[in-house]
UniProtKB/TrEMBL annotation:
GO terms for biological process: 'de novo' IMP biosynthetic process; adenine biosynthetic process. GO terms for molecular function: ATP binding; phosphoribosylamine-glycine ligase activity; phosphoribosylformylglycinamidine cyclo-ligase activity. InterPro entries: PurM-like_C_dom, PurM-like_C_sf, PurM-like_N, PurM-like_N_sf, PurM_cligase. This is Phosphoribosylformylglycinamidine cyclo-ligase. The lineage of its organism: Bacteria, Bacillati, Actinomycetota, Actinomycetes, Micrococcales.
Length: 365
């Protein structure tokens, strides 16, 4: 019996080939700030520009894409899951007003299939390019016996920078601020365990066609996460709109109300009008298949809102117009208030944050 590494199920040659296949996509994300290129033990990024900051703050975020990878694996389609990863990681950086600088990724798999790994990383690189983020490093780990040959999981981390006095958050939000919704592209990367549960109850497969969804179920569910960083940075950098954005909330796990509550000050509250938008068909169909109302899923899915901006009332109209013109439909959801009232039924804070209070009211359009 051979006791070599390859006999144990680890193919280092396949790993080397995967690196070669992904190298050009990764290098395309590199600007003058990247030092050393691809292949080092650590990625290097020149932050000399921070010397010009009065008080530079570094922002960092890490995440994965959850069980959405199961659908990519079932369809053997791996070129968009990287976009989801960038969305989950880099779009958390912009929430505090920071410009993303660089990102690293980690892929764990049962067996290295170079073309598959290269497709995943190409998607990450594409997302990094769209958000102005350098992909400076990563790791692919082969875990035979722990993961099946076609199984993998992805995770990533990113770092950004922001001037302290430009930091966004609850401390900027005031009475009368307007809450603006930014449309999602679909489910993004949250709530897929519920999706898979619903499909199992329907005895529906990812390769099945659904007239209700308008295509193959798996392809509809793989719609990549919309990336918000670039258009939001343009808003923040614009002299007309830059001072109009007070807070941002990335609508991920927990849904709309819980995530917005995290970026509102204690003592404030807002009612969001469901009648201001119509959730996309994917949410309506899945809820119907699961015997659920849309309201039942509000703590799980984004229901058509991927990011929320809390903005000055006198800048709300131009911010909505600028976002919509940039390709992200946007609309007003409600108004932040601080007057005393009974907050029964409101979501108050989330994930350890003592924030404001939020609830959705009315019926969906």
């Amino acid at each position: 019996m051979s006791n070599s590494y390859s006999a144990a199920g680890v193919d280092t040659a396949a790993g080397d080939l995967a690196v070669e296949l992904m190298k050009s996509a990764v290098s395309a994300t590199h600007g003058p700030g990247v030092v050393g290129g691809v292949g080092g033990f650590a990625g290097l990024f020149d932050v000399s520009f921070l010397k010009s900051f009065e008080r530079p703050l570094l922002a960092t975020s890490t995440d994965g894409v959850g069980t959405k990878v199961a659908i990519a694996q079932a369809l053997d389609k791996h070129d968009t899951i990287g976009l989801d990863l960038v969305g989950m990681v880099v779009d958390d950086i912009i929430v505090v007003g920071a410009k993303p600088l660089f990102m690293t990724d980690y892929i764990a798999c049962g067996k290295v299939v170079p073309e598959r790994i290269a497709a995943i990383v190409a998607g990450i690189a594409r997302g990094c390019s769209e958000t102005g983020t350098a992909l400076v490093g990563g790791e692919t780990a082969e875990h035979p016996g722990l993961l099946g040959p076609n199984d993998y999981d992805v995770a990533g981390a990113a770092v950004g920078a922001v001037e302290a006095d430009a930091l966004l958050g609850a401390h900027r939000v005031t009475d009368g601020d307007v809450v603006v919704a930014l449309e999602s592209s679909g489910l993004h990367s949250n709530g897929y365990s519920l999706v898979r549960h619903i499909l199992a109850g329907q005895d529906a497969g990812y390769t099945d066609h659904s007239d209700d969804l308008g295509g193959l179920i798996g392809e509809v569910l793989l719609e990549p996460t919309r990336l918000y960083t670039a258009p939001l940075l343009r808003l923040l950098d614009d002299p007309v709109t830059g001072d109009g954005v007070h807070a941002l909330s990335h609508v991920t796990g927990g849904g709309i109300a819980a995530n917005l509550a995290r970026v509102l000050p204690v003592g404030s509250w807002v009612e969001l009008e469901r009648s201001s938008w119509t959730p996309q068909p994917v949410f309506q169909v899945l809820a119907e298949w699961g015997g659920l109302s849309l309201a039942d899923t509000e703590g799980t899915w984004n229901l058509g809102i991927g990011m929320i901006a809390v903005v000055r009332a006198d800048k709300a109209a131009i911010i909505v117009d600028r976002l919509t013109s940039s390709g992200i439909p946007a609309w007003t959801l409600g108004v932040v208030q601080t007057a005393a009232r009974d907050l029964t039924g409101f979501e108050q804070g989330a994930k350890g944050v003592d924030g404001g209070a939020v609830r959705l009211v009315g019926a969906y359009a």
